[in-house]
């Protein structure tokens, strides 16, 4: 796949294409997508967030306006690329929201910030995922093309019209393979538990992440503020439960904004 023309890799509009900077935000919410997802998943969220929250939906390489950039399939390398972009925006309280694959990225970003004595998020909101040390599924990113596409169909996250469009798939499959490599990345146990609140969300009918796996996130924090919420639906419950999800997210953000760091 051809590379994008040389440009500033840390340009904010490249990583946060829909961000609308606020003059004096009380908190920044960084949203990281599921495998195959993009920043546009969160484009309609700003109006449903509490006042003072600035939405920063993260656009990873290999999708939408970054389609011609090489996707990143290595979690430490992705964190290396993201941290310099995030750094100027961590001057305000912030929260990471990660959906499925995005939960692993959120955790690794937080661990790296902790290791560098950097600012830590006021909280983590982690949806449709169990803690990454619980690898009870077989990776799919290395499968032959036909088998890989069948697995995508089983996950029900890629529209059927795309799966049937061979020319479009040729463009998208490298990014999807990279994302599923990230989704199965073994973060491993942390040497030190984080002192960060964690709010976990899961779908009651999620065949890939049973509700029992949500509890595994408790092992990642020593903070007393740990919550689990269930939403009706499968792995992609955010599609039909967006209003309920935003209400719950708003409760978390409001609580963390008003709690001293």
3D structure, described in words:
InterPro entries: AB_hydrolase_fold, TEII, Thioesterase. Residues 1-22 are annotated as: Disordered. The chain has 261 residues and is of the alpha/beta class. It has a single domain, classed as Rossmann fold (3-Layer(aba) Sandwich). Helices cover 32% and strands 13% of the residues. It contains eight helices and six strands. The chain has helices spanning 12-15, 75-86, 101-115, 145-155, 160-163, 166-183, 211-214, 242-257, and strands spanning 27-32, 53-57, 94-99, 123-127, 198-203, 226-231. The chain has a six-stranded parallel beta sheet, sandwiched between helices. Helix 2 (75-86) crosses helix 3 and helix 3 (101-115) packs across helix 6. It is globular, with a radius of gyration of 18 Å. It starts with 11 loop residues before the first helix and ends with a helix. Residues 1-6 have low confidence and may be disordered.
Layout of helices and strands, plus pairs?
Blueprint: H1 12-15, E1 27-32, E2 53-57, H2 75-86, E3 94-99, H3 101-115, E4 123-127, H4 145-155, H5 160-163, H6 166-183, E5 198-203, H7 211-214, E6 226-231, H8 242-257
Parallel strand pairs: 1-2, 1-3, 3-4, 4-5, 5-6
Helix pairs in contact: 2-3, 3-6
């Amino acid at each position: 796949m051809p590379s994008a023309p040389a440009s500033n890799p840390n340009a904010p509009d490249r990583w946060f294409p829909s961000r609308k900077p606020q003059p004096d935000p009380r908190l920044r919410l960084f949203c990281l997508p599921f495998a195959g997802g993009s920043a546009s998943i969160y484009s309609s969220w700003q109006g449903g967030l509490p006042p003072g929250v600035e939405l920063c939906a993260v656009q990873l390489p290999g999708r939408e306006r970054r389609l011609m950039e090489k996707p990143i399939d290595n979690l430490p390398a992705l964190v290396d690329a993201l941290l310099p972009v995030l750094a100027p925006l961590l001057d305000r309280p912030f929260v990471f929201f990660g959906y499925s694959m995005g939960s692993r990225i959120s955790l690794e970003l937080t661990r790296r910030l902790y290791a560098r004595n950097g600012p830590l998020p006021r909280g983590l909101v982690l949806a449709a995922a169990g803690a990454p040390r619980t690898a009870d599924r077989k990776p799919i990113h290395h499968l032959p093309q036909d088998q890989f596409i069948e697995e995508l169909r089983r996950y029900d996250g890629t529209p059927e019209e795309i799966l049937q469009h061979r020319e479009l798939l040729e463009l998208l499959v490298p990014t999807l393979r990279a994302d599923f490599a990230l989704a199965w990345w073994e973060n491993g146990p942390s040497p030190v538990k984080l002192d960060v609140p964690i709010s976990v969300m899961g779908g009651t009918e999620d065949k890939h992440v049973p509700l029992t796996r949500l509890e595994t996130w408790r092992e990642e924090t020593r903070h007393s503020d740990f919550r689990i919420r269930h939403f009706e639906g499968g792995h992609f419950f955010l599609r039909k439960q967006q209003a309920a999800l935003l209400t719950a997210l708003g409760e978390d953000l409001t609580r963390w904004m008003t709690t001293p760091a």
